[in-house]
Amino acid sequence: MNSIINNEQQQRQTRRYGENETSLIQEGGYISPIPDLWEDILIGVVLKKPILLKGPSGSGKTKLAQSISEFFHQPMHSVNCSVDLDAESLLGFKTIITKDGQTFIEFVEGPVVQAMKKGHILYIDEINMAKPETLPILHSVLDHRRMLTNPFTGEVIHAHKHFTVIAAINEGYVGTSPMNEALKNRFVSFAIPYLAGVQLREIIQNQFPEASPTLVDTMMNINEDLKKQVVNGLLSEEAASVRSLLDCFALAEHIPVRRAIQYAIAEKLDDKMEQKLIMELVDTWVK
Question: Are 6 and 27 contained in the same domain?
Fold first, then answer.
C-alpha cells in the first residue's frame, strides 16, 4: 500500500522539502483520528476515485484536503457551494476585453476547468449546499469518463491524469439537502470524526507550544464534556468543533478561559439553553 502512494507522490511532486522546511505535521497538517484513515484516503486519490469527506463542522475536512494537496505537492482549487452556485461559478464565464483597439470575447476558465486541464485538486466544500440541479453538470467529470463538454465554449476537456476531486459534506445542517444518488454514487465516502485524545493533544501542542500543561488539560477536559453532550443530543455538533477549540486556545493565551470559551464556542450557537449548558460545563472545570 505504501509503495503505490509513494510512487504517485514522486510522480506528482513538483518540489522537494528543503533542509529548513518542516514536515506536514509540524506545519499543522491533518492528523487522522482513526488508524489507517489517512492512508486509505490517499489510496482512493491515487486510484483516481472522487473522494467524499463526511463529518461535522470543524472536524478537519478542509485541513485534510489541504494536507493531501501538500502531500502530493499538488495545487488545489476550491469551490464553496451555496444556493447561488451556478454553472459559471464552476466552469467559467465569457467576458469582453479590449486590446490594441480591438474588442474580443474571452472565456475566463473556472475552477473545474482549470483543475482538469492542469492536473490539480478540485475541492468542493459543503457540496450539499448547492442546488441539486446545478451539480449534474459534473457527472461526466466524476465517473470513468473524466471529461467535460464545456457548454459555454463547446470545448471537450479530458482531465489530466493527476486531476483529483475531493468534496466535503456536513450532513443534516440547516440549508443542506440530501445528495442526489447519481452524484453520491460517483464518490468513495469517508467518515471524518472529531479528533480526540492523543491526536487532539498533538494538534494543540503543535499550534500552541507555549501553552501551560494546566491549560491544555483544562481545555481537553472541557472538550470531552462538550462531546458527551453532543452525543446525548443536548448540544449541536458545532459545540465540539476542533476549529472552535483552537480558537479558544488562541484567546485563552490573552484572556481568562471562561471568556475565551464564551466567545469562541457558546456565542456561535443560536440556542440560549445550549449556550447556558456550555458555560455550566465550563464552570465545573474553571473556578
Answer: yes
CB proximity list for 175: less than 8 A, separation 6 or greater: 83, 129
pTM for the structure as a whole:
0.79
* Domain around 22: 2-191
Instruction: Please say which residue of 191, 217, 247 terminates a domain.
Output: 191
Q: Of the candidates 191, 216, 240, which is a domain's last residue?
A: 191
Predicted pLDDT at 1? 62
In angstroms, rounded to a whole number, what is the distance separating the alpha carbons of residues 273 and 234?
A: 9
Q: Is the C-alpha dihedral spanning 33, 37, 39, 42 positive or negative?
A: negative
Distance CA 160, CA 143 (A): 14
Residue listed under C-alpha cell 479528533: 195
CATH of the domain at 10: 3.40.50.300
Quick one: 283 exposed, middle or buried, by C-beta within 10 A (0-12, 13-18, 19+)? exposed
Burial class of 37 by CB neighbour count within 10 A (0 to 12, 13 to 18, 19+): middle
For residue 152, name the pLDDT band (cuts at 50, 70, 90): very high
